[in-house]
């Protein structure tokens, strides 16, 4: 089983309330507005601010391009 990207239509970033994008390579959900990457563990998104890592400026620019 893999992360169901249909979830991206109904879930939002708990910090910035914006859309999330799935980074398949790093198995993370990306919020460019909040500059955070949330891990996906066992196909379940962990949408906790204290579990997220901060995105670098380069990563934010990559996702916004």
Automatic annotation (TrEMBL):
Which residue spans traverse the membrane? Answer: none
What InterPro entries has UniProt attached to this entry? Trm112-like
A Gene Ontology cellular-component term? cytosol
Entry similarity comment: Belongs to the UPF0434 family.
Q: What is this protein called?
A: UPF0434 protein DC53_01355
Provide the taxonomic classification: Bacteria, Pseudomonadati, Pseudomonadota, Gammaproteobacteria, Alteromonadales
């Amino acid at each position: 089983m893999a992360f169901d990207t249909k979830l991206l239509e109904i879930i939002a970033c708990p910090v910035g309330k914006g859309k999330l994008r799935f980074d398949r390579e790093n198995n993370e959900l990306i919020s460019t507005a909040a500059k955070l990457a949330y891990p996906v563990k066992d196909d379940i998104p962990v949408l906790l601010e204290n579990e997220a890592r901060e995105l670098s400026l380069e990563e934010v620019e990559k996702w916004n391009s």
